[in-house]
Amino acid sequence: MLSQQPKEASIPLQDCGFGRTSQEYHDVAKRMRSHGGHTVVDIPCVVVIGNQSAGKSSLIQSITEVPLPSSDGTTTCAPFEVRLTRTDASVPWSAQVYIRWEYDASGKKLLLVEEVKFGPRLEKKEDVELMLRRAQAAVLSPTGDLSRFVQIDDKELRDLAASKSNAFSKNVICIDLAGPDLVDLSFVDLPGIIQNAENDPKGEAVGLVESLVNTYIKGNCLILVTISMSDDIENQKAGYLARLADPTGSRTIGVLTKADTIPQGSLGKQQRWRDVLEGRQHATKHGYFCTRLPDDIEREGGIAPKAARLKENEFFDSTAPWSTSTRRDRCGTQALVTYLSELLMQRIRDSLPKIRRDVEAQLQACKKQLDALPQAIASEPCSFVNRLLMVFCDDIKAHVRGSPTSAALVQTNKRAYQVLKMDIRSTAPAFVPFEAEDAFAPVVLSFTEKNIAGFVKPMYLKDVRERIGSHVTRELPNNVPYAAKISLIIDFQRGWEQSTLRCFEAIQRTVDQFLTRHIDQQFQRYGNLKAIISSVVMEQVKSHAEKTLKQLQIIRTYEANFQDTLNVEELAEKRASWLASYKDARASRRDDIGANAQGAFSFATPPASFFGTQVPAGSQTPSPVPNLAFTFGSGSSASPRAPAAGPVPPVTNKQVPSKATPQSYTKVPDSTSQGTGTPPSNSQTPRAASASTAATPLTGAALQKAQQEAIAAFEKLGIKLMPEDLAKFTPVDENQEVLELMAEVRAYFEIASKRVVDLVMFAIDQHFLYEFSAALHQALYEKLGLHEPNARERCEGYLVEDPRIVAERSELLARKGQLESIIGDLDK
Q1: In the chain, where are the structural domains located?
Q2: I want to staple 174 with a disulfide (CB 3.0 to 4.6 A). Which of 3, 66, 98, 166 is the partner?
Q3: CA angle, corner 306, sides to 305 and 311, nearest 5?
Q4: What's the rounded Cα separation, in Å, for the pair 85 and 28?
């Protein structure tokens, strides 16, 4: 069964120079256990186990010298911790019963272990049994009032025992016994292991007791196994459980009970038990002790402890095989008690340094875990809630306004506004100053934003004339109907509303995500408060979004109803620039034809169309006239580019299609070198080409020289011109009115598109973001009822934390207090 040969150790009675007496070491262990220290660190102790009717209770009674509860069946219904203390001869004997609550009524471990007194200090040994029975009744009824159990009599105890629903409890009954005849020793007596489960058909009691035993005999404890010699050792489950917990037998001490039950003639049986006592069978490191305890008649007769010890010694001195055993020194209860006291003291002493290290390490880990949790609220609830609101609202304002540390929201919104700008610019009217059937080169739309779908449909001279014709009413000849101009403006404004709504929806999504994230960060631990904050914030977002939509509709109404601007200087400048560009393009076309060039005209690099597109590089046709570049709808260049002032490449005979085909439409990257609507510069505005039919028009340096001479001549007359102004001196075009209309609408687009993008941005920022952030604190303050008479009660409800965080903090605080108490015990 149990293995290992016995090794006798010489255990000194003195303190071995550690500065503490044996009693002090036992007291340290006692204090640590009273705080529940045994649940967090391994504190050495003695655990007494045994089968039912193995004589365990009689052994405990012999050691303590006090009567214990006795009845049929199991005497011990709960763990029973006995703490013996030797006192001076002048100090009278006394006893104090405690209950150590380690589990609640449902069997769940308590966070805070508490040891409470049960009843008054006892000065008579005969009072102990009744008080212990009362304590057993109390732990088996954990919901009852302890003070009631202290006073109940024997009859009521029997009635409770008969009706009790719980047969066992894991809470501990403790008794401190102090007297001059005792030794310094503490041990835990566990309920007897049930062999016969007739009264427990479901096996619940059997499982509970064995689980309790297995829990207690782990770690550094000494296992005191009571083994009845009235049965074979192999049949006793207590020894089996001890061997499972201590396979090497290094912590196991056997106690052979009921030595007087072996018949004198059973020589074989006597020899088997003698072999066990002397270490030849079932050996353990600490060996075995043998006891002869009072029988039923002697107990009923009230035999005194000293008389019982004397009778025990007489039995072993006179009865074979014990009287002739080589281990006669291990026969008798007194030898067992002395050995246990000294061995336990030594193990406690040797374990204290490790216990301190373990406790300090656990305390540091516990503090780190507590630091990682939100601190418990210590201030007045209303003030605390209001501070939370102010911090939250100030944070929202900082992100709305933007700062080096709070730039994400503003930057994300700026990207949405850039998309809006590209969307609006992509609606630029695509006027081409040629007849539809006479397009001189393939043209393509240039888009740089993914959200822009399709192409802007080009409008040729024929298309514009038809639009003018459809609006003619009672005008005098040579007057373009104003309604035609308005209709062209309305055309490019049609998509602005959807672009604006897309922009606002994108910003709303960004704001919703931003607010959700910040609410989670600041109110996650307060579930009730978070729910209300989220609701109020979403209400405010919705309310300000509705106001903003109204403002955006007002802007849309302005643009639809008022095709006007006070920015007349810029409008006139852009109108003149576009008109000159259109006329220059047509003049260049005529010059190319007159020079018998098969291409219409060449483009500046990179080539571009009249409405924001580029001609494929392979189709570029150098011309004897200045290079031209037109950009209409692109997000980067929506004004005509001026011609280069340098020489023009020679003419080449390269056929250019007369019409743009679908295959010629290709998207090309946007250039960021020049913003949309930038007026033509000196070096980039198309130069006028002569409309004469001269066979050899001026080119290169000759043309440049002629231009300079012309400009110089005008300067002598006091007229200052730019190279592009020379286009104004070309012959009047038969499409002059159409070109003027195209130039004016295109110029107005540039003014209006810039204006609407800015107005939309201002409206969203002001009415949605700024006004929302400004009104948020007051809305939250009122909705939370912080101004109400019952504000304190409301705030206490708001600040109820997540139960998981509360439970974790409570557990950590309880453990921290427990560990600090253990360190305090070690320092005493």
Answers
A1: 396-461+487-800
A2: 98
A3: 95
A4: 12
